[in-house]
Amino acid sequence: AQSVTQLDSQVPVFEEAPVELRCNYSSSVSVYLFWYVQYPNQGLQLLLKYLSGSTLVKGINGFEAEFNKSQTSFHLRKPSVHISDTAEYFCAVSDQGSSASKIIFGSGTRLSIRP
Amino acid sequence: GAVVSQHPSWVICKSGTSVKIECRSLDFQATTMFWYRQFPKQSLMLMATSNEGSKATYEQGVEKDKFLINHASLTLSTLTVTSAHPEDSSFYICSAREGGARNTEAFFGQGTRLTVV
After folding, report:
1. Which residues have CB under 8 Å from A68's CB, separation 6+?
2. pLDDT for res B102
């Protein structure tokens, strides 16, 4: 079974500062990894995903993440944040088995941007 | 990207009544659909996984007789909360995944906020 740990429940940063949201996963099989963003009272929007190949993945809104197999991590980064990035961010994992493979979410990290 | 439409976006119902939530994949065939529940300021907890034409597989601790899931077609799954109680008030989110080579990513609906009074 897979599991995801997001180490930080809240991350406050100043506008235009860089940010890193941490994610570690556990799995005995090969996985797909995802980062989603959720704005209040809305569903989830995919920021980026790692399927295979290059370990550095670029997503929407200037976000990127790096897959590190040895450290079982998939940390999300942005070099300069904006007020509009204030939201809840979820890391998720799914094994590569089939379309029925579960997508398991981490506990989420609330990113708050200070002007 | 693929679109998943969830309806209604919010609903208020009286205690003891049943509520049905629909999840539709608009431009792809969803071999698998997932239903999640999210409490305020918490993560998404998987309730069940359904494959078209089969019975849903429920996660441990989820009452299958209370949360009825139907996945009768490749574009529609429904979640019915039966005999709803205030503790069932929550944000419910569905997601859908296409089968075959495009089965890497699941697409999410916009969620349904259920309030039971």
Report:
1. A55, A74, A75
2. 55
Residues of B in contact with A99 (CB under 8 A): 31-32, 97-100, 103
Residues of chain A neighbouring B31 (CB-CB closer than 8 A)? 99-100
Nearest to A107 among B32, B43, B111 (CB): B43
For residue range B41-83, list pLDDT tens digits in order: 888 999 999 988 888 999 999 999 999 999 888 899 999 999 9
Interatomic CA distance for residues A39 and A101, integer angstroms:
26
The partner residue sitting opposite B43, judged by closest CB among A32, A51, A90, is A90
Please tell me whether residue B102 adopts helix, strand or coil conformation. helix
pLDDT in tens, A24-52: 999 888 889 999 999 887 888 999 999 88
List B residues 13-72 in contact with A (Cβ-Cβ < 8 A): 31-32, 34, 36, 41-44, 46, 49, 51
